[in-house]
Write a structure and sequence with these properties.
There is one protein chain. The protein has about 575 residues and is an all-alpha fold. Helix content is about 75%, strand content about 0%. The protein is built from 35 helices and no strands. It has helices at about 5-15, 15-20, 25-30, 40-60, 65-75, 80-95, 95-110, 115-125, 130-145, 150-160, 165-180, 185-195, 200-210, 215-230, 235-245, 250-265, 265-280, 285-295, 300-320, 325-335, 340-350, 355-370, 375-385, 390-405, 405-415, 415-420, 425-440, 445-460, 465-475, 480-495, 500-510, 515-525, 535-545, 550-560, 565-575. Helix 15 (about 235-245) packs antiparallel against helix 16 (about 250-265) and helix 23 (about 375-385) packs antiparallel against helix 24 (about 390-405). About 40% of the residues are buried.
Length: about 575
């Protein structure tokens, strides 16, 4: 026989497994690879020993060693079905599904009545999306165990996938006769009816279930969902209102009605149903939190923000011991810019559960924004006792220490960020920028410059680094060309920022470009409605070098009135000249 013909014969044999199971002698003659060779007593003993050793290796998770032993057994006894099955399981562990499938197909030829082999083979066909072969494997399982309803369920599902709807319905009817009507049969039959466009059949069955079980709210919910998903909102609403009368404390009924009213654009009625559902403690808080978070895409619409805020507040009343309720309410307060109110809510969430990092971070951020640096340090350091490897929390605590002017403490926290975070360039750039500020305050200018350079390397457009680095270089009179480039870039990125314009003006002044410096300092004064004393003093310095002595002195005096204090400023006023 030609090689191609023998391969075709092998495939035909696999496809006709039931026929081969009825005639094992024919199977042996047509597939010599599965014929057991005559074995001596020594061979049999060796196979038993190898099999035991292979199982031991597999138990020890030495899958390569086990596979080698099982393969050796098949060389001696190619029809050893237990070995074929065990080796297939190893192939599956190794993600070699085709290899596992081939071994299982050989195993069921040797032992066509072994349900475990067929179950494993059916799983393989299902993974491979080979529905036709899956159907055949399920037929074999039904033949072996005709009273097992799971096999019939799986067969009906396979037929549904193949769009053999009438055959699938026949099996579901058969199951109903043997197991009685249940939700699984109802739901699966509904899917088929809907695919066939038979809405009346799908709804009619549920109406019958409601008549037979008028107190079972789940059937009303199923029917309401069926009507609603097919655009029959009025019928869905009517069914659910019937359910609401039967069980007014059923959360799912209120949520379903809320969806229907929302679809009908009756948002007040929808919101009222949501409030009823949110007041019921028996329901799932996770689902309710998901509903609240569903309002976020509608922000900043004030109605959406107000609704989310009120629903999240209700959560804290309905679930007073659940940290998630308070965390959600805190988030909605923050979204509504009610930071003062959000702080105690976050603290309550932490009191109930200290293991939610996100809540700690929100709390510390609020404290920093409120200039509550002592509290930020206290809560931030406590958070780090639970979550020491959180880069953002190290950064926030470091910033709090910076604001308290304890620069060494700030450095000790900020320095951790780069070792904990390698992907977030925004955070890395900002942390290096803060390090630059700290080292500058500690007069360690080399480390300060290195930190600023790393900040710009991580983010060339970090305007605060560009401005601060440029300004500090100008104060030291170093690298003024580089400082001017950075200051100019900062103003390009964020125009009309008084402090940035003042920095650029001051660098131009240090470069003795007084005319251009005057242009930029006047921009800064126009942008700064608060009239910063330093900017006014700089204006006087620039005017002095442009020869306008009287106006220079007037601006120095004005700077002093605005709060500037230094011996140099007093000398400028008294001596009417610029003092370095």
């Amino acid at each position: 026989m030609k090689k191609g013909a023998s391969i075709l014969l092998l495939l035909l044999q696999i496809a006709a497994l039931p026929l081969l199971a009825q005639d094992k002698k024919q199977s042996a003659n047509s597939r010599p690879a599965l014929v057991a060779k005559p074995m001596t007593g020594n061979d049999s003993n060796m196979v038993r020993q190898l099999f035991f050793s292979a199982l031991c290796a597999k138990t020890a998770e030495d899958y390569a060693g086990a596979a080698e032993l099982f393969t050796h057994i098949l060389q001696v006894d190619p029809a050893n079905d237990a070995t074929l099955y065990e080796l297939a399981r190893i192939k599956r562990i190794e993600k070699d599904e085709p290899g596992a499938r081939g071994l299982l197909e050989r195993a069921v030829i040797v032992q066509p009545d072994n349900a475990y082999y067929w179950i494993a083979l059916a799983e393989s066909y299902e993974k491979n999306n080979d529905v036709q072969k899956l159907e055949g494997a399920l037929d074999e399982l039904i033949r072996i165990d005709p009273d097992n309803p799971q096999y019939l369920f799986d067969k009906a599902n396979a037929l549904t996938v193949e769009k053999k709807y009438d055959q699938a319905l026949e099996i579901y009817n058969q199951l109903e006769q043997s197991t009685g009507l249940n939700d699984g049969i109802i739901l699966n039959r509904q899917k088929i009816y809907l695919k066939q466009g038979k809405i009346n059949e799908a709804t009619g069955e549920l109406e019958e279930m409601i008549k037979a079980n008028p107190a079972q709210v789940r059937y009303y919910l199923l029917l309401g969902e069926l009507y609603n998903s097919n655009g029959l909102n009025d019928k869905a609403q009517a069914v659910l209102q019937r359910a609401e009368k039967i069980d007014p404390a059923n959360e799912l009924v209120h949520l379903a009605l809320a969806d229907i009213y929302s679809d009908k654009k009756d948002y007040k009625a929808s919101y009222d149903e949501l409030k009823l559902a949110f007041a019921l403690p028996e329901g799932d808080i996770g689902q309710k939190i998901h509903i609240v978070m569903g309002y976020l895409p509608k922000f900043p619409d004030p109605n959406a923000k107000a609704s989310a805020l009120e629903l999240s507040r209700l959560l804290t009343i309905t679930y007073p011991t659940d940290a998630r309720a308070f965390a959600t309410y805190g988030n909605m307060l923050q979204a509504n810019e009610m930071y003062k109110e959000a702080k105690p809510v976050y603290k309550k969430s932490i009191e109930l559960n200290s293991q939610s990092y996100a809540v700690w971070e929100q709390l510390v951020r609020i404290e920093l924004s409120n200039n509550e640096y002592d509290e930020a340090v206290k809560d931030g350091e406590e958070a780090l006792s639970y979550f020491p490897n959180q880069a953002w929390m190290n950064y926030l605590v470091g910033v709090a220490w910076l604001q308290k002017k304890d620069y060494n403490k700030a450095v000790s926290y900020i320095s951790n960020v780069s070792s904990l975070e390698t992907q977030d360039n925004g955070l890395l750039s900002q942390s290096y920028s803060v390090l630059g500020d700290c080292y500058h305050s500690l007069k360690d200018f080399k480390k300060s410059d290195d930190a600023y350079n790393k900040s710009i390397e991580a983010n060339p457009d970090n305007v605060y680094t560009l401005n601060n680095f440029a300004y500090y270089l100008s104060l030291r009179g170093e690298q003024l060309d580089k400082a001017a480039q950075m200051a100019k870039h900062a103003n390009e990125l964020q125009p009309n920022t008084a402090s940035f314009e003042d920095t650029y003006a001051w660098i131009l002044f240090k470069q003795k470009n007084y005319t251009e410096a005057k242009v930029w300092i006047e921009k800064a004064l126009a942008s700064d409605k608060s009239k910063d004393a330093t900017e006014v003093e700089h204006y006087g310095d620039i005017l002095f070098y442009l020869g306008n002595i009287d106006d220079a002195v007037q601006n120095w005096k004005k700077a002093k009135q605005l709060g500037a204090q230094s011996p140099q400023l007093d000398r400028k006023i008294n001596e009417k000249k610029y003092i370095e």
